[in-house]
Amino acid sequence: MEELVQGKGKRSWLTALLAFLMPGLGHVYNGYYAKGLLIMSGLLLNFTAIFRLAYSDGGRHLLFIVYLGLLLPCFYFYSVYDALTCMDSGRTGERTGKRAITLGGGLMLLGTGALAMFLLKPPEALIPWMNELAELSVGPLLILSAVWLAVRSKGGIRPMFKFGRITAVLIMTAVGALLIWDQLQDRNAIIKLLEWWPVLFILLGLEMVLYSTIWRRRSEGVRIDAVGLPVALVVAVVAYSVTQYADYPARLLHQFNVDVNGYVEYGEERGFHYERPVMKVPADDSVSTIKLKNDNGDVVVRSGDARDIELHTAVWIDVTDQAEADAVAERTTVKASTGAEVVFQSDGQTYGASGSRKPRLNMELVVPRGIKKLEIQADNGSVSLGGMALERGALIKSNSGLVEVSNLAGPLTVQSKHGNIEAESISGITRLSTKNGVIEAHDIRGGLLNANSSNGSLELSMIEGDIEAETKNGEIMIIDAAASIKADTLNGGIHVSSPVVGADWDLDSSVGEIVLMLPEDGDYSVYGSVTFGKIKSELPLRKSRKTVRGMIGEGTYRIQINATNSITLLPLSENLQGAFIDKFGTMNVQ
Q: d(Cα 298, Cα 365) in Å, to the nearest integer?
């Protein structure tokens, strides 16, 4: 008897080890060939699907890939747990043909093997259709999983009464429906999950009420759904996190404007309106720099023919009481200091129930010719600057709002936290950066263009100087680049179309495709490689499954391409460039 117990212990240990090393192997070892081989084939099919989706277009199928990745540890857990459970139940020792080999198991093995082969060797004509199907299938699969969760039980097909099961089913169904709706309507309704999280406790409360009244007999000894409820929560959190990606932290910061002195509320452009007298400051030859700081309000800067610096201001107080508005407006001013640097600083009288609301103070600054440098700081409002020549350039710092700069002769630096940047017709070194926003730059001449966004796309066209473009989460589109390009995006594609290649290009995309339209008669060499995706080239280059290389003309300049997903190389033509712009950007490229 002791030897039998010791033998059983050794067998349990070996079963667990085999089941962990390769899911399904523990079942095969104990005679459950059908179940063991199905677990193995399911695991390998899961891996195959992940690599197929990543190979086709990983960025497009990221949510599906994450869900499939979450299934991998489930295979290992189920393999070990079920193999040991079978041994404990005393069934593993019965190596009968009925238990080891079944008709249903054989048919399912045929199906998983055929599907894996189809994913590994898909017909070329079906690949676009497969990509569309994979993108649209996440929502329906979640709804089907919810249905399966609703009817699954050990005793047959009937509702399983476990506390939290109904809530889990409804959550998974809602997430699947939102994903389907967003794909069909091209919307972002899934973001509502964050606003509707209290519904979780409402549904659990309703379940508890049902168990206490209608299902009172079933409520005795009811257990919490320790599987379905956590799975539903993981499904919802992953769906929100992947679809929103890095966008949420920036939105949160953009929604609550906080400065170093504490919480600040910003008044809006409504209520009572007051036009202030024009402030004039003499600008003799000693004045070289103008600085303007505005806590709340739009800033417009333009060139003027007058000798003096002029500041036009308009105040908005968004209250309902006229007397209160008059009092706040009276104490809202702009301070000015003179010297080599002329500084304008808004000084708004705070008001409101909390005493922290700042009035809206819109400013229009008229700058005489001869000023060498301009510095603008706007905490909450847009900035517009145009038609100026500044020898030492312009520096614009914006916390929240659109920044527009056009027809500027001189270097330009824009630093924005939460807003888009638009720059056009700039002659000088241009540096544009935003943490959360889109950058558009057109007709930049006379030096380097550096464009950087943590969360937003970059759209650059007609750039004469070198280009440095980087974004963590967004597309990069470049049209008509005359010099070198260094473009890097973590999550997004890179699309470049240029009639010339006048310097070296280095393009790197971690998650996203790279599409280039290049001249057929240039002097450049190309080397590109992909990790998962495909390579398509209509240029006379040598192409393999994972690399593309070759030389056009004398190969004077180098184009280096590193992509996780696909690479597409096309010859430049006017019709193709128009289609390129329509597909990848909305810039008005001349």
A: 11
Q: Provide the strand spans (E) within 90-229.
A: none
Give the C-alpha separation, 581 to 481, whole Å.
14
- Residue 410 · residue 427 · CB < 8 Å: yes
| Mean pLDDT value of segment 524-533 | 87
Q: What are 402's two structure tokens?
A: 């659109």
**Entry pTM:** 0.62
Q: State the DSSP code for 37.
A: H
Q: Is 200 exposed, middle or buried (0-12, 13-18, 19+ CB in 10 A)?
A: middle
pLDDT given for residue 166 in this prediction: 86
What's the rounded Cα separation, in Å, for the pair 415 and 433? 5
Contact between 364 and 302 (Cβ < 8 Å): yes
Amino acid at 462: M
| Number of Cβ within a 10 Å radius of residue 31 | 17
Q: Judge contact between 23 and 46, C-beta under 8 A.
A: no
For the chain, the 3-state helix, strand and coil shares in percent, each to the nearest 5, are 35, 35, 30
Greater model confidence, 139 or 407? 407
Rounded to whole angstroms, how far apart are CA atoms 133 and 114? 18
The rounded distance, in Å, linking the Cα atoms of 589 and 86 is 68
460 pLDDT tier (thresholds 50, 70, 90): very high
Closest CA to 539 of 501, 504, 510: 501
Asked whether the beta carbons of 120 and 49 are under 8 A apart, the reply is no
**In this structure, what token pair is assigned to residue 380?**
């909450």
Task: Report DSSP letters for 132-176, one per residue.
Answer: HHHHHHHHHHHHHHHHHHHH--TTSSS----BTHHHHHHHHHHHH
Residue 181 has pLDDT above 50, yes or no: yes
Burial of 4 (0-12, 13-18, 19+ CB in 10 A): exposed
Q: Region 552-577: what's the mean pLDDT?
A: 84
Name the DSSP letter for residue 192.
G
State the amino acid at position 202 in one-letter form. Answer: I
CB 496 within 8 A of CB 505: yes
pLDDT at 495 over 90: yes
The span from the CA of 377 to the CA of 384, in Å, is 12
CA distances to 22, 136, 147, 258 from 72, rounded to whole Å, are 12, 22, 22, 43
What's the Cα-to-Cα distance from 218 to each of 56, 210, 212, 214, 354, rounded to whole Å?
Answer: 49, 10, 9, 9, 53
Helical axes 62-88 vs 228-244, angle rounded to 10°? 160
Residue 248 in this model has a pLDDT that exceeds 60? no
The kind and range of the H/E element at 517 are strand 514-518
DSSP secondary structure code for residue 277 in this structure: P
* Residues whose CB falls within 8 Å of the CB of residue 15, separated by 6 or more in sequence, listed in order: 26, 29, 30, 83, 84, 87, 92
In the chain, the percentage of residues whose pLDDT exceeds 70 is 84
pLDDT in tens, 346-364: 998 888 877 788 999 999 9
Q: In degrees to the nearest 10, what's the CA dihedral of 397, 403, 409, 415?
A: 30
State residue 134's pLDDT score.
76
